[in-house]
Amino acid sequence: MQTILRQPRHVGPCKVSSYSCQRNYHAILPTLFIAKNPATSVRDVQAYGFFDGLKKILYGSDNSRKPQLGSQDIDSEEAEEAEGADMMRLDSESGGLAEDQSVFGPLAVLLVGFMAEEVEQFRTTMLEIEADMVKIVPCSPSMMGGTLQQALESEIPKYEQPLLGTRRTVFLSGMIGAEVVEVIAAYKEAGMPPTVWAAAVPNNYTRLVKDLVDEVHADNTAMVRRAQEAQARQAAQQEVGMGDGQL
């Protein structure tokens, strides 16, 4: 396992956060947190790769690797977050994602709608996978009215409890595909609350956080509905087939 140095990175018009400039990070990284070019110790930065068009919907707390669509055991209040919507499923079985080396934005995670103890649990989870170089930003109520860029590039704020009704959403930035898979897998294995996952990409970087949260959850709800309708049609077809077989 190789020790590498992650240096502050600048992508296009996006400024480097003052936080990331305050210190250099040395860490022994797990297998999935690797440099694209170990010889240079800093991986190449590209404005866009697999993240483009990615509003990735994933399971949060379910320890199974694949969501079970249309489960009748899921609480209706958690259906939008916990059921199996996956606009483009992002999990450890997705072969191509782990090979993508493109990154966009600062190396950071924005946690929206998380309680203080959940933020600390996420921080502990990141330490356990030796990803302590990733900046963890708990989204304050005021950040909801700012852009995703401002939130990700800000100084780490003092924790403020989210407003009632703020839905859990995780925005990932500056990670290659394999690192995204690693973070999500660790989150699920830690048994953390259901959430919806999204990625920082050029076309959403200057949009308001609150608008992005609404959009990814609306997309999630629509995907859940389509999946349930497809499952219902399949079940109906199976019943018809069984009935024909008994004639």
Automatic annotation (TrEMBL):
Residues 74-84 have a biased composition (Acidic residues). It holds the Pfam family DUF3783. InterPro entries: UCP014543 (IPR016621). It comes from the Eukaryota. Residues 65-85, 227-247 are annotated as: Disordered. Residues 229-239 have a biased composition (Low complexity). PANTHER family: OS10G0545100 PROTEIN (PTHR35732:SF1). This is Uncharacterized protein.
